[in-house]
Amino acid sequence: MDFPVPSDAMVAGVRTAIATLGPTTRAVAAGKCLEIAPPRNETRFWSPHLSIQFSDVRPESSGNAELPHLSDHSVPAGASPDNASDVNCQLFGRFSPRPEIWTFCMFLYFAMALILCGGLLIAYVQWSLGASMTGLWMVPISLLVIVGLHAASLIGQGLSRHQMIELRQQLDQILALAAPETPTAERPALSTADQTPTMRVEITS
């Protein structure tokens, strides 16, 4: 999303909005980042969280080039004050598992990859020595665990789809207070290409 204000002003508005909402939101702002999580009593092993980053961009840029840090009253060297008003705030959000869950899953993937490679190496040594290749048993076991982890992640995404919608609605609520000059109805929603069929049903209903 793009907003016609510098990122510092947008972040200040977001902090004020979070303070206004109080305990009705589990949002935390730190620097130019915002984290939104589901309520504690609804948090499960598969629950997602929404991570937001704010940055300054030129409206005519592609949206990827960041500008030097701008305060509400500062202007980059060599730039005119009029150019400072042309700086927009770009918001980039990502739904992801909780950090501790993501780290645990990556550890398991890495461990299974090592076991798979180790099994192949042991089996090769056993084959070269003419012994029974018992090391090959490690290969299907590690592959089954990897497939199981992937299946579990897909199941978790399905179970948490309603929480993703709620996190997005909470973000819209915060932005409506932080930037009232840009109504929620005018902000871009999740692109159709980024939505799963289940999410499309949830959003349209």
Number of helices: 6
The general outline is: elongated
Question: Looking across the biggest beta sheet, what order are the strands in?
Answer: 1-5-4-3-2
- Note the run of SSEs as H and E: EHEEEHEHHHH
**Total tally of structural domains:** 2
Q: Might you state the CATH topology name of the largest domain?
A: TATA-Binding Protein
* Secondary-structure arrangement, i.e. CATH architecture of the largest domain: 2-Layer Sandwich
Regarding CATH, which class of the largest domain? Alpha Beta
| Beta-strand percent range | 5-15%
Number of strands: 5
The largest sheet is:
5 strands, antiparallel
CATH superfamily of the largest domain: Kinase associated domain 1, KA1
End-to-end Cα distance, whole Å, is: 23 Å
Structural class: alpha+beta
Low-confidence stretches: 61-84, 183-188, 190-194, 201-205
The radius of gyration is 23 Å
If you average the pLDDT, what whole number results?
76
Helical content stands at 40-55%
Tell me what the structure shows.
This protein has 205 residues and is an alpha+beta fold. The protein has 2 domains: 2-97 and 161-193, 2-Layer Sandwich (TATA-Binding Protein), CATH 3.30.310; 102-159. It has helices spanning 7-21, 81-84, 99-128, 138-159, 161-178, 197-204; strands spanning 2-3, 27-30, 33-36, 48-57, 88-97. The radius of gyration is 23 Å and the shape is elongated. The two termini are 23 Å apart. 19% of the residues are buried.
Secondary-structure blueprint of this entry?
Elements: E1 2-3, H1 7-21, E2 27-30, E3 33-36, E4 48-57, H2 81-84, E5 88-97, H3 99-128, H4 138-159, H5 161-178, H6 197-204
